């Protein structure tokens, strides 16, 4: 009998938690509609949300409301005194070490204008191609061609951690190319090395 009563209490508590979560979700949606403004850019809107709710709101929720990539909020740091956001130091460093436009085009051509892992190309509808630093800029990776590879936005997201810190899950250049070979395209890194002569 005691077990039945505990199950009933558990069920009742579970239902209350579900109802409260639904109320919180509704409150978040309403507040976000009021806070997010078309007059602000994405970074400023994220700052406004963090000023109102704190930084503990999951990046996925913030990104959904602001209409940005899920990793973008993780690249930012909030200053509670000024209620503003700025890029984290490693992101600023990465922006300073961006791939020049002419290099970007050569890397895209070298990699067949497609993601080296999955093979999706810019011509495949919504695909967005990114030039990835194999050794991250935060680890002093260069913008030299041998340290760059073309990835689609999905593969680029999966190679980085979910918090936008710039960290990658592999530890060596070989580890990166092994991960690439496991993809649908399985691009041959030797092909890439041969084409580096064109730079």
TrEMBL record:
Pfam entry (one): HalX
Please report the stretch or stretches of sequence annotated as the HNH nuclease domain: 102-157
- A single Gene Ontology molecular function, please? nucleic acid binding
Record's protein name:
HNH nuclease domain-containing protein
Q: Which organism is it from?
A: Haloplanus rubicundus
């Amino acid at each position: 009998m005691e077990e039945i009563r505990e199950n009933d209490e558990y069920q009742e508590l579970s239902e209350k938690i579900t109802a409260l979560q639904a109320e919180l979700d509704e409150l978040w949606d309403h507040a976000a509609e009021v806070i997010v403004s078309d007059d602000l850019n994405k970074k400023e809107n994220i700052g406004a949300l963090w000023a109102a709710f704190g930084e503990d709101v999951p990046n996925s929720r913030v990104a959904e409301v602001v209409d940005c990539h899920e990793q973008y909020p993780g690249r930012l740091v909030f200053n509670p005194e000024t209620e503003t956001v700025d890029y984290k130091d490693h992101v600023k460093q990465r922006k300073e070490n961006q791939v020049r436009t002419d290099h970007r085009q050569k890397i895209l051509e070298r990699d067949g204008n497609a993601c080296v892992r999955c093979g999706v190309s810019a011509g495949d509808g919504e695909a967005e191609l990114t030039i990835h630093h194999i050794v991250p800029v935060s680890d002093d990776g260069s913008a030299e061609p041998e340290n760059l590879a073309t990835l689609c936005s999905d593969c680029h997201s999966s190679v980085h951690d979910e918090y936008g810190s710039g960290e990658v899950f592999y530890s060596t250049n070989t580890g990166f190319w092994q991960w690439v070979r496991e993809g649908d395209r399985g691009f041959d890194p030797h092909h890439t090395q041969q084409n580096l002569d064109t730079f």
